[in-house]
Amino acid sequence: MNRRIIDSLRYLDPSAKIVSMGDFNDDPISPSFKKILKVKGKEKQLDSLGLFGPMENLFKKGIGSLAYRDQWNLFDQIYMTANFIENPEGYRFWKADVFNLPYLMDPKGTYKGYPLRTYAGGSYIGGYSDHFPVFVHLIREVK
């Protein structure tokens, strides 16, 4: 569905700068991203109609936004059209990251280092989420 929306926006405006983000329940290297959306993990691989997924590089370094059975996943992703990277006028992509500061992590026990949940086992534990937030830095030249 996301591919269809991006294609329809590009049909209306081929120069549209599009950013898509969310919990996609798939990692950056999953077939849904690589084969269906055709998201590229390296800027050099892009053509003018390509989609760039900066989260792939983070995932390959072992960085994730959620953990399950001691395996990190990066289901929370942000990807964008190629023209968002090569944009000399206005904002452009600089880098992506996962916001995983210590206060967002479970400090002890079996899930030490995992995102600190709000609820676990039906009990309120006062955390934030079972996922760490992800974000991108956008920069622009100041004249």
Strands, total number: 10
Query: Largest sheet at a glance?
Result: 4 strands, mixed
General shape: elongated
Radius of gyration: 17 Å
The fraction of residues in strands falls at 25-35%
Distance between the termini: 39 Å
> What is the helix content?
10-25%
Number of domains: 1
Secondary-structure-derived class: alpha+beta
Number of helices: 3
Helices and strands, in order, run as: HEHEEHEEEEEEE
Kindly report the spatial arrangement of strands forming the biggest sheet.
1-6-3-2
Poorly predicted residue ranges? none
Average pLDDT reading = 92
Characterise this structure:
There is one protein chain. The model has no long low-confidence stretch (mean pLDDT 92). It contains 3 helices and 10 strands. With 143 residues, the chain is an alpha+beta fold. A 4-stranded mixed sheet has the order 1-6-3-2. A two-stranded antiparallel sheet has the order 4-5. A two-stranded antiparallel sheet has the order 7-10. The chain is elongated and about 50 Å long. It has helices at residues 2-12, 31-36, 55-60, and strands at 19-23, 39-40, 51-52, 66-68, 71-73, 76-81, 92-98, 119-120, 123-124, 134-139. It has one domain.
List the defining traits of the structure above.
143 residues; single chain; elongated; 16% helix; two-stranded antiparallel ribbon; four-stranded mixed sheet; 10 strands; alpha+beta
